[in-house]
Amino acid sequence: MITMIDRKRFLELVEKHLNRNCSKAEEAELEKYYHVYGQRLFDEIDQRKIRLQISQRIMAHAKKSKYSLDEKHKRRTLLRVAASLSILLVLGMSSVLLLPIKQVKFITVASNLGEKTQVTLPDSSSVTLNAGSRITYPETFNGDTRDVQLSGEAFFKVTHNPEQPFIVSTTGLNTRVLGTSFNIKAYEDNTEVKISLATGSIQISRSETILATLEPDQQMIFDKTSENYLVETHSTSNDTFWLYNIIKLNDHSFSETLKIMERWFNIKLYVEEIDENTAKRTISGKFIDPTLEEVIQSLELLCGSKISYKKNVKL
């Protein structure tokens, strides 16, 4: 019986096993490590998070192997080798592993109020963040999916990869794509999430339930309070004018219009007095390359009241 782990030999066997180069004798040797240590320690020690990371690393390594692994062999590999590697972690040997365990590093990029920010993701997908928005993504996409989190508004151009779907998480909704372009508006202080498709196809789900599959020039509007949603035909260009420095208002409420202007110019607007009817009025129109003075003058005409502002609002 094996009474102690020969670290160098063990790592050599793991590498051979993943590349399916083990002889029968070497497979039996690796099995001994598993049966002696794995079955005894694997279930007793609470290392779920560590084992998940190990499994992800092994799968990423296996995908790069010159040999393809069938599903049965993948499962066997994951259970046995992850158990064996967890033994080394228990013994404090993780620093010398052939497949080192790393915490996934996440990157957050924020676009300040009054700004738009361009982001290139690890898979070469591009994201344009509107003012007051932020995106969080891993340093590398190693798993079965490419997962990012969005708060605010962004336009995505996703690199096509059917083997690794791209998923955007926003306020309880998941937008799943293979490769396409679309706009998501999901500011935390808005009551609605709006997802508009420009090209390709996207699938939108909530809590594992598929809500809609959009075609180009369709939009889904999700009410965060009631959790009701609507899919309608909608020109996506109406939602992407901001990319070209154009503010497009399409039956926006007065309060929503104020929020748009505040984010756009990095200001806080103060309306001296406004009656109830004016507050309920919806506004449509376009501001092309707008200036702050032009916008304030227009809003004052609409509401019939003086508007002041404060600059440099923090995100």
TrEMBL record:
Domain (Protein FecR C-terminal) ranges: 248-310
This protein's UniProt keywords: Membrane, Transmembrane, Transmembrane helix
Transmembrane segments: 78-101
Protein name: FecR family protein
Keyword Transmembrane assigned: yes
One Pfam family hit: FecR_C
Residues in FecR protein domain copies: 109-201
InterPro entries xref list: FecR (IPR006860), FecR_C (IPR032508), Ferrdict_sens_TM (IPR012373)
GO terms assigned for molecular function: sigma factor antagonist activity
